[in-house]
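Example record

Each entry pairs one chain with its bound ligand, zinc ion.
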Amino acid sequence: MTEREACPSGFVAKCRCGVYVAAVDILRAPEVDARTMLGRWLWDGLTVEPRFGSWLEKIDACQCGKSRQLRSRRPRPERGAEHGRRELQAMSDTTDEIVRAAVHWWESHRPLSFTLYEHLEHYAVNTCSEPEKNLARAVANAVRISLDANVPEGERP
Ligand SMILES: [Zn+2]
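Structure tokens for the complex follow.
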């Protein structure tokens, strides 16, 4: 058995209704994305199964609606100033969470030999797809703005 055959070549996610609703081919997708995806699947209550060698799984729409419900479990905004404020706070918390996750994702692509500033200059290093490069650019811009606001001019390289 070769090393490649011993490790999973992909993962599929099954909803509690028994339908495979998602799949990832880790030989083609970058590993860091697959790990994030696996975590989200488990968080959504899906059953994750490894696949070895070459595999083909039919991916379908969930039959029970549980996967969809789990994904949009946040309550709809309610009327009234108090509810409005709470909704705004929830939105801002969610945005912070997204930014933190995006920065973490970007940092995980930084070569060990790179400083933060080198990474800002070559922000798309180790990314493959166009969406990844776009996300890397957006994160780099946000990090630059935050550095400009928090690090005095004299302390920047
Ligand atoms: Zn389902």
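Helices lie at 3-6, 31-43, 66-71, 81-107, 116-121, 130-150.
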